[in-house]
């Protein structure tokens, strides 16, 4: 009898998992090389938001592969393909209608950075508009936001590490980047966080998992519910603090 109950319990678990995943279509899940949030390590996706997404997948019964690719390519695909997710995507007004949103999964300060020995001082966006050029990653939210603010001096770069390298080698005086990623990128290139300084912080925003407009609403609801559950049970905060100790942990949608 106990053996029968064991088999019945196992079958029930399988059926429950199948039902949980049932009806949810397969997804193309895309991200970029932007450590420590998202990157490729030994051919596998890794990073803070990758771990969050993988835990969401576990909870909703998704086994879809996460692909690391250049941001500009993923950004285009996420706007045109069905059932496509792209992360970490900062949610700003210029993007609001382009995607369906699940999050927040990060909180970020967007700033202009210069080398430590730079004499440049910025006290406003107007000061930054007068510069010869500002490097920014192509199709990042910072490029979109600054372009919308009338910046005509932006030079779009393919990857964050390429942009930081150009700054440190004197090929640019100013870049637009984030507090969450700059320290790691500097260390990867052989520098220290103290080798740069913030010249001016101009935006506070949150990162999300962005789904293509044609993605099923059922997928978006399931992912948002799984993320909310992670925040309630503490597993989200544990992942976040391990990767970004000392940084504020995003709360539930609508929370301050």
From TrEMBL:
InterPro entries to which the protein is assigned, alphabetical: Solute-binding_3/MltF_N
N-terminal signal peptide: 1-21
Coiled coil: none
Domain Solute-binding protein family 3/N-terminal: 26-247
Pfam families reported in the protein's UniProt record: SBP_bac_3
Source superkingdom: Bacteria
Keywords: Signal
Name assigned to this protein: Transporter substrate-binding domain-containing protein
Originating organism: Chromobacterium indicum
